[in-house]
Specification:
Elements: H1 2-18, E1 35-37, E2 42-45, E3 55-57, E4 62-64, E5 71-73, E6 99-101, E7 106-111, E8 114-121, E9 126-129, E10 135-138, H2 139-142
Antiparallel strand pairs: 1-2, 2-3, 4-5, 6-7, 7-8, 9-10
């Protein structure tokens, strides 16, 4: 009786261990599930027969993973590409631009190399794209060129 309980616990441990997700923090890299997570919630398909500029979004409350089921509930699984890994990937004011994206959905004005405090928000379902000349665009229009991969601007 006790031996069957030990075997059952060992099997349960092995099953749960095999489902663990390793957080690599590597964004826009094709994974074994044939998608590349662009950030915690957006991904693109990898493959010769799919256009590379098509970006999909996980449902609200889910994150992009390297599992066969691409989007899993936030908190149950870690995202393959984390926002914290991308915190340094946003442009800064370098004296040559008037605006920079400060998150996926916000931008701010530059004063030379300083960032002004006023945060401007894109409309729903739009992401920041200063390089497009439109400030904010549809996610599919931006493709895989997300200029700032943060959830919120840094304070």
């Amino acid at each position: 009786m006790q031996q069957s309980q030990i075997l059952r616990n060992l099997f349960l441990f092995a099953a749960l261990s095999s489902m663990a997700v390793v957080v690599l923090g590597v964004c826009d890299s094709c994974q074994t599930n044939n998608v590349a997570c662009l950030n915690e919630t957006h991904y693109r398909f990898c493959g010769d027969n799919v256009a590379p500029n098509q970006v999909a979004q996980c449902p609200t409350g889910q994150v992009c993973t390297n599992l066969s089921i691409i989007c899993m509930d936030e908190g149950l699984y870690d995202a393959s590409c984390s926002d914290t890994a991308a915190d340094g990937s946003c442009p800064s004011c370098d004296g040559t631009t008037m605006f920079v994206c400060t998150s996926r959905t916000t931008f701010q004005q530059c004063n030379g190399t300083s960032l002004l405090s006023q945060v401007t928000y894109c409309k729903d379902n739009k992401i920041c794209s200063i390089n497009s000349g439109k400030y904010c665009v549809d996610l599919c229009e931006a493709g895989d060129s997300i200029e700032c991969d943060r959830t919120t601007p840094l304070a």
